[in-house]
Amino acid sequence: MHRLIIFFLLLQVFDFCNGGVTSTYIRKSEASIDIPIEYLPPPPGYNSPEQVHITQGDHIGRSVIVSWVTPLESQSNYVTFWAEGAKHHHKHKAHAKTTSYKYYNYTSGYIHHAIIKRLKYNVTYIYQLGEHNSTRTFSFTTPPKVGPDVPYIFGIIGDLGQTFDSNQTLEHYLSNPKGQAMLVVGDLSYADHYPFHDNVRWDTFGRFIEKSAAYQPWITAAGNHELDFAPEIGENTPFKPYTHRYHVPYKASQSTSPLWYSIKRASTYIIVLSSYSAYGKYTPQYSWLEEEFPKVNRTETPWLIVLLHSPWYNSNNYHYMEGESMRVMFESWFVQNKVDMVFAGHVHSYERSERVSNVMYNITNGQSTPIEDPSAPIYITIGDGGNIEGIANNFTEPQPSYSAYREASFGHAVLEIKNRTHAYYTWHRNQDSERVAADSLWIYNRHWYPKKESSSMA
Ligand SMILES: *[C@@H]1O[C@H](CO)[C@@H](O)[C@H](O)[C@H]1NC(C)=O
Ligand SMILES: *[C@@H]1O[C@H](CO)[C@@H](O)[C@H](O)[C@H]1NC(C)=O
Ligand SMILES: *[C@@H]1O[C@H](CO)[C@@H](O)[C@H](O)[C@H]1NC(C)=O
Ligand SMILES: *[C@@H]1O[C@H](CO)[C@@H](O)[C@H](O)[C@H]1NC(C)=O
Ligand SMILES: *[C@@H]1O[C@H](CO)[C@@H](O)[C@H](O)[C@H]1NC(C)=O
Ligand SMILES: *[C@@H]1O[C@H](CO)[C@@H](O)[C@H](O)[C@H]1NC(C)=O
Ligand SMILES: *[C@@H]1O[C@H](CO)[C@@H](O)[C@H](O)[C@H]1NC(C)=O
Ligand SMILES: *[C@@H]1O[C@H](CO)[C@@H](O)[C@H](O)[C@H]1NC(C)=O
Ligand SMILES: [Fe+2]
C-alpha cells in the first residue's frame, strides 16, 4: 500500500511535470569586462606585501595558512600575529616558505606561505605583514571547535574572474557581515584568457580578492582555468601558477596532491575534488576518496559537503555532460555516504537540483534516468561569479525533472548551518540587495533528519 502511494507520488513529481522552475527574471545583458590593471594597483610603500589571502591550515581548523606576495625582495617573509585584545608582548611570529615561478616570459614576485599553528578556537587574531612604512594589518577569526551543533555560515562563489561583475558579486557577498568562510568552486583569475596566459592577471586577481580573502579563509577547488597548460609556449606543467599561489592543507587529510583534500570546519566535513585530475579506478584521487568517506563521522561533523568544478547535474547547453564521467565513477559513493550538498561551477549560470541519483544503469538494463533519492545530495551549480566569458543563458528545454531551479544571472550563495539537522541556503542574484534571496531552501541533514525539503522561491 505504502509503496503504491510512493509510486504515484514519484509519477507526479517526475512524469507529469517537466521539472522545476526556470526563473523568468530577465537579466540586463551587458558584456563582462575585466577591471583594468591600473584599477588594481599594488599597495603603496616599498616592497609592500600584496595579494594577501588565507585558508585553513590543518584538518580541524586550528591552523591558518597566510599567503602573500612581495614584489621586489624576498624579505620580509614572516607574519606577526596576536589575539585581539591581547597585550603587545603576546605577539607571535610565524616564518613563511618563500617561492616564485616563471611562466613563459613572466616572473612572479616572492610568494610567501606561512602556517600559523596551534591557534585557539573561535578567537579573532590580528596579523601584520611587511616592515617599516610598508606594514599592513589584517585579521581573521578561527572557527569554533569541531562539533555537531556548531552553527557556521559559508559563502559560496564560483568562476569569479576579475570583471566589474565579479566585483559586484564579491561586494554583494561582503555586504552580508555574517559570512565566515568562502567555499570557492574553481576558475579564479581567468589569466589564461590573455595572450601567453599573462600571469600579471594572477597578480591583479590576488589584489582584487584581498578585501575578502585576507580576512576569511577561501577554501578552494581547482577549475579548468587553473590548468594553465600551454605546451605551445613551453608550459607543460598543469596548475603551475595556481599551486604556487594557493596552498591548501592537503597533507593533513593524507592526500598526495593539493588538488584534492578535506577539512573539518565547525559542524561540516568538506571534501574538495579535482575534475581535471585522474579519477578512474586505481588513480591516486580515486584511492584517496575511497579511504576518505569512511573517515567522516557524522556524529562529530553532521554536514558532508563536496566541492568540485564540473557539475554532474546541469541542464545548460554550456558544458552539457562534461561532468558525466566523474559522476559515473563517484555518484554511488556520494549516495551511500549521504552527502548533503555538492557545489560545482564551470557553467556560468545558477542551478539547483532535486535530490536525485542515477546509479542503477548497467549498460543493458535501460535504467538511465535520474530518480528521486532521499540519500542523494542536492547539486548546486554556482559558476555565476561574473568572469570575462559572460553568462551561460542557453538552457535545455524542457527543464529536466532533476532540475529544481535555474537562472542565468550572476550571484553568490550563503549556507547557514544552524545545528545538526537544519541549514538555511540562499542564492543572491547581483541585481538585488543582500536581504533578497532569489532561491532559498531549508536543507535537512541526510544523516540526522533525512526529510524531504520543500522548495520555495521568490
Ligand atoms: C612577453 O611576451 C609578449 C609577446 O612577445 C610581449 O607582448 C610581452 O610584453 C612580454 N612580457 C614581458 C614581461 O616580457
Ligand atoms: C619608507 O621607507 C623607505 C625605506 O626604509 C624609505 O626610503 C622611504 O622614504 C619611506 N617612505 C615614506 C613615505 O616614509
Ligand atoms: C564564539 O565566540 C563568540 C563571542 O566571541 C560567542 O558569542 C559564540 O557563542 C562562540 N561560539 C562558539 C560555538 O563557541
Ligand atoms: C568594486 O565595487 C566597490 C563598491 O561598488 C567600489 O567601491 C570599488 O571601487 C570597485 N572596485 C573596482 C576595482 O572597480
Ligand atoms: C565519532 O565522533 C563522536 C563524537 O566526537 C565520538 O564519540 C565517536 O567515538 C566517534 N566515532 C568513531 C567511530 O570514531
Ligand atoms: C543489468 O541489469 C539487468 C536487468 O536487471 C540484468 O539482467 C543484467 O544481468 C545486469 N547486467 C550486469 C552486467 O549487471
Ligand atoms: C543553444 O544550444 C543548442 C544546443 O547546443 C544550440 O543548438 C543552439 O543554437 C543554442 N542557442 C543559442 C541561442 O545559442
Ligand atoms: C535546529 O535548527 C532549526 C532551525 O533553526 C530549529 O527549528 C530546530 O529546533 C533546531 N533543532 C534543535 C534540536 O535545536
Ligand atoms: Fe570552468
TrEMBL record:
Cofactor(s) listed: Mg(2+); Cu(2+); Fe cation; Mn(2+)
Top-level taxon of origin: Eukaryota
Family matches, as InterPro entries: Calcineurin-like_PHP, Metallo-depent_PP-like, MPP_PAP, PAPs-like, PAPs_C, PAPs_N, Purple_acid_Pase-like_N
Signal peptide (UniProt feature, chain positions): 1-19
Domain Calcineurin-like phosphoesterase intervals: 154-350
Molecular functions (GO terms): acid phosphatase activity; metal ion binding
Domain annotation Purple acid phosphatase N-terminal: ranges: 49-142
Gene Ontology CC: one annotated term: extracellular region
Reactions listed under catalytic activity: a phosphate monoester + H2O = an alcohol + phosphate
Assigned keywords, A-Z: Disulfide bond, Glycoprotein, Hydrolase, Iron, Metal-binding, Secreted, Signal, Zinc
Purple acid phosphatase C-terminal domain location: 376-433
Subcellular location field: Secreted
EC id: 3.1.3.2
Subunit relationships: Homodimer; disulfide-linked.
Stated family: Belongs to the metallophosphoesterase superfamily. Purple acid phosphatase family.
Listed name of the protein: Purple acid phosphatase
Species annotation: Solanum commersonii (Commerson's wild potato)
Lineage: Eukaryota, Viridiplantae, Streptophyta, Embryophyta, Tracheophyta
